[in-house]
Design brief:
Blueprint (H helix, E strand, L loop, with lengths): L4 H6 L32 E4 L6 H13 L4 E2 L23 H5 L5 E8 L2 E8 L4 E8 L9 H17 L8 E6 L2 E6 L6 E2 L7 E6 L5 E6 L7 E5 L5 E3 L7 E7 L5 E8 L2 E8 L4 E5 L8 E6 L5 E6 L6 E6 L6 E2 L11 E6 L5 E8 L2 E8 L5 E3 L6 E6 L5 E6 L6 E6 L5 E3 L7 E5 L12
Helix pairs in contact: 2-4
Length: about 450
């Protein structure tokens, strides 16, 4: 869904896709930013668990980063959750003690044979509400952190009825390699080689594959990489030209991407399941069309086009018909728009737009057509939705370097995701990578 600003600059293209330093326009009368009002969420605490301090620490951070709770901090040495009997025995939980901390819910974690049991308690009612068991690998071993993240997401589902994003991961580009990182900013791992020069990484819907451009000498095929095996497959027809900004369709069978030629840049689709059926969706006529993003129902594609001059956000049916301007634009007052990403629930499209020569994040409400500005500090671009439709990861230089940040679009809370090396082109997985099993 994105393209390298460096590559497009070399090609003298007037815009950049999700990887470019572009800018956005601002609608008059639109409220800038979001005001966070504390005290409107349920409060929750994770009960002391001295034998499981590393598990508890991860769950505490996950619940905080979910932005769905007021997390009540309690030292791990306050008191044992049980007043007697076997460790973790729910009949002995000291509800009177934990009610004094002012939390609505208490999360208990305790050893249970070779597993860990997690229990959700309603502290006001003095009753256990939910329980699950999970096999957690030893700390420091593969799978430990992801297993704990899945436990955190289970807690979020119990309380809110919606899925958390702790067990998801993100892709991004740094030092000419694709990296994968956990949603809390830990466990960054390079998953491409040092000589590939990848661009625009994108997740498959099931999290088992990624697609990216392998840039070499001004050209680049689209590569589909199976993460578990390392197998790389070249998408049909992409071996000779420069092909950029790939994105999977919701069914995982089709891939849309942009192809750069002397006549311009146009969007194509290919059936990667059957390795066939390449279809041209736009006809640029010396304009540029790129950065496709599918609606969750797979019926429409939002994309960037320069057909009217400055790059703007358009939309079309997946067969290329019914192309029209998508995001309202005040010509002559606002700047170019780039890097659209359709929200998982289909209600919104995020993109970045130039405001006083600086890119800022905007959100388009699909139903009403209204656009609102989300950021205003520093340069902010290339946003990608979390699967909860509530959080966005994006690139910002607000700290002085181009790093990844996460914003909660409901409260406006912003946290830093990466801390070192320049980062570009984030892509958030649509679920737990590889569909790993969670607590039972």
């Amino acid at each position: 869904m994105r393209c390298s600003a460096i590559v497009l600059g070399l090609l003298l293209l007037p815009l950049v896709a999700r990887a470019q330093d572009t800018t956005r326009a601002i609608d008059r009368g639109v409220r800038v930013g979001i005001t966070y009002t504390p005290g409107m969420r349920p409060s929750i605490m994770v009960l002391p668990a001295p034998a499981l301090d590393s598990v508890r620490a991860i769950i505490l951070r996950d619940l905080d980063y979910s932005d769905r709770f007021d997390v009540i901090g309690v030292p791990n040495t306050v008191a044992s959750p049980a007043r007697g009997g076997q460790q973790g025995a729910t009949t002995a939980l000291n509800y009177a003690l934990y009610r004094t901390f002012g939390a609505n819910y208490g999360v208990e974690i305790a050893p249970s044979g070779r597993e860990i049991v997690v229990r959700l308690h309603d502290l006001n009612l003095g009753a256990m509400k939910q329980e699950a068991h999970a096999a957690i690998p030893d700390p420091g071993t593969p799978g430990f952190r992801m297993a704990v993240h899945q436990m955190s997401d289970q807690i979020v589902r119990w309380v809110t009825g919606t899925s958390g994003v702790a067990a998801t991961q993100l892709l991004y580009i740094s030092n000419k390699r694709v990296y994968r990182i956990d949603s809390d900013g830990e466990n960054a791992v390079a998953i491409t080689g040092e000589t590939e020069e990848p661009l625009s990484p994108a997740w498959s819907p099931d999290g088992r594959r990624i697609a990216y451009t392998q840039f070499t000498a001004g050209k680049g095929p689209i590569v589909v990489l199976t993460l578990a095996t390392g197998q790389r497959t070249i998408v049909p027809s992409t071996g000779k030209d420069l092909n950029i900004t790939p994105v999977f369709a919701p069914d995982g069978r089709t891939l849309a991407f942009a192809r750069v030629t002397e006549e311009g840049t146009d969007i194509y689709s290919a059936d990667i399941a059957d390795a066939c059926c390449v279809q041209r969706l736009t006809v640029g006529r010396f304009a540029d069309n790129l950065s496709p993003t599918y609606s969750p129902d797979g019926r429409r594609i939002a994309f960037v086009s320069t057909r009217a001059g400055l790059p703007q956000i358009y939309v079309m049916a997946t067969d290329g018909t019914d192309q029209e301007l998508f995001a309202p634009f005040d010509y002559g007052v606002t700047g170019s728009s780039n890097a659209p990403d359709w929200s998982p629930d289909g209600t919104s499209v995020v993109f970045h737009r130039e405001v006083s020569r600086s890119p800022q994040l905007f959100i388009l409400d699909v139903a009403s057509g209204r656009v609102r500005q989300l950021t205003s500090t520093g340069r902010n671009e290339d946003a990608t939705w979390a699967p909860d439709g509530r959080h966005l990861a994006f690139v910002s230089d607000r700290s002085g370097r181009r790093l990844l940040w996460v914003i909660d679009v409901e409260t406006g809370r912003i946290r830093q995701l990466t801390t070192s090396a320049a980062a570009r082109l984030p892509a958030w997985s649509r679920g737990s990578p590889g569909s790993m099993p969670g607590p039972r």
